Amino acid sequence: MAFTYKKDAQDKHGPVEFDALIKIDKERRYLIDSKKSGEYVFRVLMPWSIEGIFAPSFKVHYLNKKPYLCPTMIGANCDFCNTHREIRSDPQYEADTRDVRPSYRYLMNVGDVREPTSIAKVLEVGPQIYGPIKTAQDTGFYGDILDGTNGHNVYLKRTVQGKVADQILVDPKPSKLANPEWENQLLDLCGLIPEVDEEIIKSLYASHPWKVYEPNPTHRVVSAPVKTQPTVGLPPQVPTTTLVQQPAATETLSNNEDQVADLMARLKAKQAGK
Ligand SMILES: [Zn+2]
Prior knowledge:
Elements (H helix, E strand, L loop, with lengths): L6 H5 L26 E7 L12 E7 L2 E4 L9 H9 L6 H7 L1 E11 L8 E5 L1 H13 L14 E8 L1 E8 L18 H4 L5 H9 L10 H16 L5 H8 L2 H26 L1
Antiparallel strand pairs: 1-4, 1-6, 2-3, 2-4, 4-5, 6-7
């Protein structure tokens, strides 16, 4: 006997996807397919804790197709982040920069509007989806979009053509939760984020298959400014040089400063919008 090849059936056996860092039951996971185009309607549910946040963030490096929490999340040193900062503006290290760059991820409790009888789920997204939702909430244009009675559904249209493009729209019309039980099913999202393992990051860094970059410290200090100068031809070489020479502690601090500056800019934009 022989049968026709069925891609859908075969896909269930791989290729192996990124291992999920957030361990959660299948029925609790709201999945947005990264392989095919589709439309989704969900409701972002209200904060589950007294802190009043609806979407905690975490920072990962994807190494060997697996996500690893970045130690800077707990204020520790991260060799990958340090190197990323050192090489990201130099085009010759583009492939290495792509391999080690940190990614921000966000978790939200959501309800599947198209399956109102289902249990509340958890959605994990990147900044491209989190950003517009946060903006919609902060502008106050629609009021509190998380509200159970007068909140707003979120539409996501994903187009996959070689690369993934997402369109996010907040329903301009307020609505009640499709399932009022969802608010009683909120999960402690911070509790889903595992502990940072600094040791594993150290060992992964030690064995990382760099494509162009030379992690040997003696090479790094001598060659970085020399290579940067002729290749990029940018007048301000000062930041690159300064970064290379900064001790690890200061780099972690400057990373936090980046985040604070980003937050301040968003707050200013929010105030200006009012
Ligand atoms: Zn890192």
